[in-house]
Design goal:
This protein has a 4-stranded parallel sheet, with helices on one face. It has 4 helices and 4 strands; from the N terminus they run E-E-E-H-E-H-H-H. By secondary structure, it is of the alpha/beta class. It starts with a strand and ends in an 11-residue tail after the last helix. Helices cover about 35% and strands about 15% of the residues.
């Protein structure tokens, strides 16, 4: 129930999402559905990585019962990176998440070396504190 797309393209046919994560360097236009903007410059990484982690966790949780859209301008670099991070959160090993997204979403997803590194270092879950 997660769709990736490029915002420079028309909304695809089918049901509209009920939640979207917009990965852009500047504020996107309003949508008819609930949306969260992550400030994320083109070819870069999210400016607030803790916020990115929280929003991607929320998107994955909402995708269990709602249609979720993850989108940047072109739909490959930032979108692919976010989708790969969501795959990590869903149990795909971080060192295989980029290949997984390239196979299942777009063969050129996750465009830059620093985006690939971000996915490899993306924490799947917080480790509990060691007992005293």
């Amino acid at each position: 129930m997660v769709r990736g797309r490029g915002l420079r393209r028309p909304l695809p046919a089918g049901p509209a999402p009920s939640f979207a994560v917009h990965l852009l360097g500047r504020r996107p236009p309003p949508t008819a559905w609930d949306a969260h903007w992550l400030r994320w410059p083109d070819f870069g990484l999210p400016e607030d990585r803790a916020d990115a982690r929280a929003v991607l966790r929320e998107a994955l949780a909402r995708a269990a019962h709602e249609r979720v859209e993850v989108a940047c301008g072109g739909g490959r670099g930032r979108t692919g990176t976010a989708l790969a991070c969501m795959a990590v959160l869903d149990g795909v090993p971080a060192d295989r998440a980029v290949a997984y997204i390239r196979l299942h979403y777009h063969r050129r997803a996750v465009e830059t070396p620093w985006q690939r590194g971000f996915v490899r270092r993306f924490p799947a879950a917080r480790r509990p504190a060691a007992p005293p």
